[in-house]
Amino acid sequence: MNKYRYRKWFEDARFGMFVHWGVYSLIGRGEWVRSNERLSVEDYQPYVERFQPDSFSAETIVSLAEEAGMKYIVFTARHHDGYCLFDTATTDYQSAHYCGHDFVREMADACHRHGMKFGLYYSLIDWHHPDYPHYGDRIHPQRDDPAWKGYDHNFSWYLDFMHEQVRELCSNYGRVDLLWLDYSYDDMRAETWQAEELVQMIRTLQPGIVLNNRLEASGEGFGSLVSGSPTSVSGDFVSPEQIIPPHGIVDCNGKHVPWEACITMNNHWGYCKDDHYFKPADMLIRKLVECVSKNGNMILNIGPDGDGNIPPESVEILKEIAAWMKHSGESVHGCHGTGLEKPEYGRITAKENIVYYHVLEGMIGGIPLTGLKKEQVKKITVLKTDREIPVSDTWITGNYPDIVFADMGEDPCLPDTADTVLKVEVIE
After folding, report:
1. Domains delineated in the chain
2. What is the dihedral of CA 202, 205, 211, 213, to 10 degrees?
3. What is the rounded average pLDDT for all residues in the chain?
């Protein structure tokens, strides 16, 4: 029996939504604002008290993700600032105390109602807790504040606090399908987090859960899943950030390793009011397909503002993606790479006896179906129009007897400029 059978849903899903949201969204300069601007707990407190998001709607977020063809959502339960978006017995530094909302509960309930896989992001770091190292740490807001120099942190107390919060998240919200822990750096990794005990507790409370690799390594490294000697704390998938690996990810033996590219729509995870550099929908569709063609997932982020509103640019992008997924999503969900040579015009994905050719630019003389022979081709269909097209049989393509060409007809314009998908049913 495959010990990783529980992660099949994850590899079949291929497309998910990240939701980065918290007190920092009210400031509107990204989720690292406390570190970047060296804001103390006291500096941050006025924003904590003003964070009263009246427009947040878990139902809206889940419906938007569902329409876009996303199969799972990862919601920020706690980011590095330490503010909890869930009801916890460990601290009053939480939304239930300050604004009367358990936002994790609202997201969990909405996901469960819609049959959406439910995941949580949880920061191993806590810039609010007095026993998390301050002075001299590489990223803490008070890393060079002399007031904290020589402070006697009791890190074991912090670990007890952090482990208990994870226990609450795994116990109080029904099924949790994925836990996205973040992040490890310098000597703050694995053993420092008491990772073996943490993972054992998580898997005991949520036996079917999928874990990322960031107890060992964050975006700065991939950890032992790739080194070929995974341990109990290695996680189930690798999480490259803001990049799609040029050749996918395999371990030292060349064996496929599950991975997920985490990508922002603009250049920030948390809401940034001045960042309008949004990636166009066509680009994101093509990048999603690239991930799948390399046996990976894409999780695409939204960053609601401080009142809980999703930026209109994000909504528009997701609706454009939804329109494409409506007719071509089958070339993403449940699909994988093929090992066939990448065609110069696009990408290839596949499942069972179907090969999907993603045509990103028009070709003259027919679309070459890389890697197939004529006798293998049973039927070719354009997914967007459901039009069946023939194999080209002209004197032009006849000069290339070892290549199968799909005949797109007289119109040189592709039916979909983002990605025209040819569904090729093959005889095995």
Report:
1. 5-328 (3.20.20.80), 346-426 (2.60.40)
2. 10
3. 95
